[in-house]
Sequence to fold (332 residues):
Amino acid sequence: MTIALARRTLIAATAALAALSAAAAGAFAQQPILLRLSSPATPTDQRAVALTEVFAPAVKGFATFQPHWNATLFKQGTELEAIARGNLEMSITSAQELATLIPAWSIFTAGYLLRDAEHQKKVFASDVMDDLKKQVEAKLGVKLLSVMYLGRRQLNLRTDKEIRKPEDLAGVKLRMPGTEAWLFLGQALGANPLPVAFTEVYTALQTGAIDGQDNPLPTNKDSKFYEVTKQIVLTSHLVDQNYLAFGRKVWDKLTPDQQKTVQKAADDAAELGRRRQLKLEAELEAFFKEKGLKVYTPDVEAFRARVQKMYLESKFAKDWPKGMVERVNAIK
Ligand code: KDO
Fold:
């Protein structure tokens, strides 16, 4: 009798427990997936605006997009490690950051390689990039969803002296982001490169800790660098590309439909950002002139010749996949 009662109680308790855990699992399944993104970009940068306007609502059915701009969650350049450790789901990374972990990526840090936004987009979509993308997934646990166009990088100086050719940059303290590949670009241009984090650039220009920096025109406006500089030299030395990076562990937890939605949301946001950056690049010369800055085109061929020669002879080039420069150039 006692045993029968105990058995009945046990069966009832087990059933109650099963019902409880099913309810808990249901509730858990409905919890939106948290997608934290960390980037030094400002919230008004066109990549940020496009992600907020397009990416966030597109994934809303199953995920919450939570961006942290101005490097408030992770310092510039530490985001990929954070994703690998599972402390972050997304970032906007660059070839320069990827090259610190996978040397072959330095090919896309070379000045005067990519021709323009369209070339950049086609190269990213082509099979030329397959192996580099696979290495990022396998070694870093990161999926590169889309290429985000930042713009053509131009020299922006607080000094007066006109810069027509690389020799004119001798001794100029040019801020570059803090990785080896970026610093080499500054050197290849003929300047004296100094590493400074993006979030510190305005103050470094203001105090004269640096003589100048390089960024695309929309960034120079958005971050108000024109307030503390006197000239923009249109070298167009790098068609800057960033990639929307997504943690592999989170990706693998998504259903195939959710993966499709995330991929489309990333592509749509990148496309909107690209179109807006291009429009701004076309308009902004007039804006800076109005603000009193000199804006002019130097001897671009002299810069191109020096930069390309230095890259091809550099230690970086030894890590580039054989024939890849030619394959990239052949993409029309
Ligand atoms: C910068 O630090 O100058 C840079 O423009 C480099 C880019 O590749 C990219 O990292 C960008 O900063 C950040 O996204 C902030 O806009």
Residues 1-6, 9-28 have pLDDT under 50 and may be disordered. The two ends are 86 Å apart (CA to CA). The pocket of KDO is lined by residues 39-41, 45, 92, 94, 150, 177, 198, 215, 219, 240, 242 (CB under 6 Å).
